[in-house]
Design brief:
The complex is a heterodimer.
Chain A lengths: L1 E3 L3 H19 L3 E4 L4 H14 L8 E5 L5 H14 L3 E5 H6 L16 H12 L3 E3 L16 E4 L27 E4 L7 H11 L10 E8 L2 E4 L13 E7 L10 E3 L5 H10 L4 H5 L9 H7 L4
Helix pairs in contact in A: 1-2, 2-6, 6-7
Chain B lengths: L1 E3 L8 E8 L5 H11 L5 H13 L15 H6 L6 E6 L4 E6 L7 H9 L3 E7 L6 H12 L4 E7 L8 H17 L5 E5 L23 H7 L12 E8 L11 E5 L4 E3 L3 E5 L4 E9 L2 E3 L1 E3 L3 E6 L10 E4 L5 E12 L11 E5 L2 E14 L6 E2 L9 E14 L6 H4 E5 L6 E10 L2
Parallel strand pairs in B: 2-4, 2-5, 5-6, 6-7
Antiparallel strand pairs in B: 3-4, 8-9, 8-16, 9-15, 10-14, 11-12, 11-16, 12-13, 12-15, 17-21, 17-23, 18-19, 18-22, 19-20, 19-21, 22-23
Classes of the chains: A alpha/beta, B alpha+beta.
């Protein structure tokens, strides 16, 4: 048995466990959004810490754009099975078939349309709270969001009219049809997440580690070549050693050049990186200064 | 197995707020802290450099870093609490950037409620203004343990020691009335970077620490109550599996104090007693645990314990009361209606309540007590409250976790007020 000091990770962990237990106790029908990405992997460990030896008092839910990296989907299913917890996968394909999502082209980024499928899923299962892995350090609209973020019947976020959040007493009340998005790791940074993954020895999908991949250099970023993204006439694919800092829709999630092959090396890189996580990896956040804010107002998590 | 040890407690995480009047330079100060501690990323820097240029200005407007929302950027104001994160090798910091506008005092209270430290910004040209007084009063009301007065824009008063000394004296006079004595004063120019992270060469007459030095070194270990064990039960774990047929774990967070296996505990409000059998963590069991750890406790006896109950050490009993005085900060645009029932959420308990009387409202500028018959947004008042079910509480000054509550409007579900318990009424 080894002793260690009460670190900032312990403080953040305890805060997150407290938040999860509040959701479980006060919300009638919560869910945990699990994408197979690193932030939601941390959420699962926090849920284990919050509720074991009991079962999770909520199912895991994934909004699948079906443009996800196959390694991540494989990992998602395996992890849910290991935990013995229920996984609900809502496919965007269904929203497209129902005509609720209309894409301009089959290879267009589906990230923005996740909101439609998410809101449909919330309505179908009558979820009153969705626990998500968003962090305030990711983006400036997120920096202004409460830990318990209230959404109206249309799933919309009103940044000017948020419930004051005092001490750690959370107002979890909703009217029927409304819901709350809950972000237990609001106060974590990208580095905290990796340090926690290291401390807890959590497995993450392989694409987080450096690997050789065919990419195209486009708009100062690297785009992974896939059935969705092919080189344009003036472009050519090249093999580059890369890793992903986020995992999302294959058509707009860009890897960064890196040789970091293990968690320790990622931590070392993250500690000295000079570019934000989303700035480096998300094309969809770069269309305007307010991209995330606008998407959140429409129901994005 | 790894277990956290109390003797090794290190305060690695400091939460602070910045408060001041409009244009005191809060956003610039935060930008400066982030910039000089190398916490600004290249893409953020290039984005704000572009925006600064678009607005026809030169250099980098660091305040753009914290102005997050579209509406704010259009109007050039800060409309909500923004949280920022940065780290030095010594500590991790969480900043709540709270706006100075009068109508957004509720956001200041929000930010203040979790802060270890408040930086009150004062514009060296203007001295102590109404808003500085309001923010200082709020910081003292919410009980922020450490207060720093940042006398900013010293570059605009020729770095005059005289100006600085006069502001300190004015501020101290006001702070005395609030019984605040532990205040640090730092002259600075956030714009030029003097005395924020670097000392600069213009303030040689000032012998004290830079702001960053202070943030890295201020002792915060005793900011939470380390004496009284308070454990609100959040969730009762009953797996009811074959292996764990009779397991009943009481899950929660230790809000204050510490506990060890074998301690005699009293369950409130029932008053039944037992002993701690196990302290369980995901990693295994521990002999002792302390605030602010989230744990699972089991006890020797089979008692009926549920969410909303509070475990304390036998003999260290808090108040169990249905009527009490509290300081209330009204946060809602809709005024208090004393004919209505509200909900109070206190620890893990939610009860119905009425405001049975308003003792007085505080004029935050003069600290004078006034007689009023209702409360409007931003009002701070001492009120009498009656609750339908007893609350198990402490005086807020003694224990923030068991002395604080929020008031919820049952119809709109909005959080309409924040309360701090001051006294029980027999």
């Amino acid at each position: 048995m080894s002793n260690h000091p009460f670190t900032h990770l312990d403080a953040l962990e305890s805060e997150a466990i407290h938040i999860m237990r509040e959701v479980a106790a006060e919300c009638a029908n919560p869910a945990l959004l699990f994408s197979g990405g690193k932030d939601s992997i941390v959420l699962l460990r926090l849920a284990e810490k919050a509720f074991r030896p009991g079962r999770f008092p909520f199912p895991l839910v994934h909004i699948d754009t079906e443009h996800n990296f196959p390694e991540v989907i494989e990992f998602r299913d395996r992890r849910a099975k290991q935990l013995g917890e229920r996984l609900i996968v809502s496919s965007m394909e269904d929203s497209i078939k129902k005509g609720k999502v209309v894409l301009r082209s089959p290879t267009q980024s589906r990230n923005a349309f996740q909101s439609v499928t998410l809101l449909d899923t919330i309505a179908e299962y009558e979820f009153d709270a969705c626990i998500g892995g968003a962090r305030r350090d990711e983006e400036k609209a997120r920096a202004k969001e409460r830990i318990f973020s209230f959404r109206d019947e249309f799933g919309q976020w009103d940044p000017k009219n948020q419930r004051p959040e005092l001490w750690d007493i959370y107002n979890t009340r909703t009217h029927p049809g409304e819901n709350i998005r809950v972000f237990p790791i609001s106060n974590w940074t990208e580095l905290d997440v990796w340090e926690y993954i290291d401390r807890e020895q959590l497995e993450v999908p392989k694409i987080y580690f450096a690997h050789l991949r065919d990419v195209i250099r486009r708009d100062a970023g690297l785009l992974p070549v896939s059935h969705l993204v092919q080189p344009r006439e003036e472009e050519r694919a090249e093999k580059v050693m890369v890793r992903f800092r986020t995992v999302g829709d294959m058509s707009c999630t860009c890897p960064v050049e890196s040789a970091a092959a293990c968690v320790e090396e990622i931590i070392a890189e993250t500690a000295i990186t000079r570019i934000t996580e989303r700035g480096a990896t998300r094309m969809d956040d770069q269309t305007s200064d307010a991209s995330m804010e606008l998407r959140k107002k429409e129901g994005y998590f | 197995m790894s277990v956290v040890k109390k003797e090794l407690f290190e305060s690695e995480l400091l939460r602070f707020i910045t408060a001041g009047s409009v244009d005191d330079g809060k956003s610039t100060l935060i930008g400066r802290l982030l910039h000089d501690s190398k916490s600004i990323f290249e893409d953020q820097l290039s984005s704000i450099t572009n925006t600064t240029r678009k607005r026809g200005m030169e250099g980098v407007d660091l305040s753009l870093l914290t102005d997050g929302l579209q509406a704010e950027r259009e109007q050039g104001i800060t409309i909500d609490v923004a949280y920022r994160y940065f780290a030095t090798p010594k500590r991790k910091f969480i900043i709540a950037d709270t706006p100075g506008h009068e109508q957004y005092t509720r956001n200041m209270v929000t930010g203040a409620s979790t802060a270890n430290l408040a930086i009150i910004l004062v514009d060296a040209r203007n001295g102590v203004l109404t808003q500085s007084r309001r923010h200082t009063y709020l910081a003292s009301l919410v009980g922020i343990p450490h207060l720093v007065v940042a006398v900013n824009k010293m570059d605009l008063v020729d770095y005059s020691q005289e100006v600085f000394d006069r502001i300190c004296k004015d501020f101290a006079a006001f702070a005395d009335e609030l019984n605040l004595h532990n205040i640090e004063y730092i002259p600075m120019s956030a714009l030029r970077g003097d005395m924020v992270v670097e000392r600069g060469d213009k303030l040689a007459w000032y012998q004290g620490t830079t702001l960053m030095d202070l943030l890295e070194n201020v002792a915060i270990d005793h900011d939470i109550n380390l004496n009284d064990f308070r454990y609100p039960v959040q969730w009762v774990c009953r797996p009811q599996t074959e292996a764990l047929h009779d397991f009943r774990g009481y899950m929660g967070r230790i809000e204050s104090g510490a506990v060890k296996v074998g301690d005699a505990v009293t369950v409130l409000p029932s008053g039944l007693t037992s002993r701690i059998k196990e302290i369980l963590l995901y990693e295994g069991s521990a002999d002792d645990a302390f605030a602010p750890q989230s744990v699972t406790l089991t006890i020797e006896d089979h008692l009926d314990i549920s969410r909303g109950d509070l475990l304390v050490k036998t003999g260290e009993t808090p108040w169990v009361t249905k009527e009490f005085n509290a300081m209330l900060c009204w946060l809602s645009e809709q005024a208090l209606d004393s004919k209505r029932k509200y909900l109070i959420k206190h620890t893990t308990r939610t009860v119905k309540a009425i405001v049975s009387g308003i003792d007085y409202r505080i004029d935050v500028n003069t600290l004078k007590q006034e007689t009023v018959d209702t409360l409007n947004m931003n009002d701070i008042a001492q009120v009498r409250l009656k609750v339908q079910q007893p609350l198990i509480c402490d005086d807020y000054v003694r224990n923030h976790a068991t002395g604080s509550f929020i008031v919820i409007d049952e119809t709109s579900n909005n959080t309409v007020a924040a309360g701090m318990i001051s006294q029980q009424i027999n």
